[in-house]
Amino acid sequence: MPSRSPLRLALAVNPTAHAGLGEARAREAAAVLRGRGAEVTELRRGSASELAAAAMQSLPDADAVVVVGGDGAVNLMANVLAGTGIPLGVIPAGTGNDVARLLGVPLASVDDAVTVLLSALEEGPRVLDLGRIDWAGGHRHYVAVASAGFDSRVNERANAWRWPRGQARYTLAVLRELVSFRPIPFELVVDGAGMAQRAMLVSVANGPSFGGGMRVAPGARADDGLLDLVVVRPLSIPAFLAVFPKVFRGAHVGHPAVELSTVRSVGIGGPGVVVYADGERVTGDPVTISVAPRALAVLAAPGV
Question: Is residue 121 a contact partner of residue 7, using CB atoms and an 8 Å limit?
Answer without folding.
Answer: yes
